[in-house]
Design a protein that fits this description.
This protein is 13% helix and 45% strand. The protein contains three helices and ten strands.
């Protein structure tokens, strides 16, 4: 038994990395957490719940629907990625993005309306902004 609670509470506040992954797809961002920021490759993601951490190893968990996508601009913030594939049917568009810093693939879900507004096609460069990042710090050995 990993966690006990109401389904909504368990889904929104998973107690462990296992629970997070068990409840659906998740993007992982490996890096170092220092004073409320997760540095994962070229990405700096705010994680205010860890403002006390000092150069700790951690993994950020972000569900595909917790990502916002914007067209790339040099002065923008977020993770730079290349659109590899997109599949838009019904109310949602599923995007497969490749991080420009070599950090792997990101799966994103967007409302189809937003996907259409962005006029994305394979090869487009975008910025990915997590709306919510849950970090689990690695235990010291």
């Amino acid at each position: 038994m990993e966690q006990v609670g109401a389904p909504d509470d368990v889904y929104n506040h998973p107690a462990s990395p296992f629970v997070y992954g068990f409840l659906g797809n998740v993007n992982l961002f490996h890096g170092r957490v220092h004073e409320g920021v997760l540095a994962a490759g070229d990405a700096s993601l705010p994680v205010p719940d860890h403002s006390h951490a000092r150069d700790a190893l951690g993994v950020g968990y972000v569900r595909p629907h917790e990502l916002d996508i914007e067209l790339f601009t040099p002065e923008g913030e977020g993770i730079v990625a290349l659109l590899k594939r997109a599949h838009a049917i019904g109310p949602l568009a599923q995007l497969e993005l490749e991080r420009s810093d070599g950090g792997g693939l990101i799966e994103a879900l967007l409302p189809t309306k937003r996907y259409t507004q962005l006029q994305l096609s394979p090869g487009a460069t975008v910025r990915v902004k997590p709306k919510r990042v849950r970090v689990f710090l690695e235990e010291a050995a």
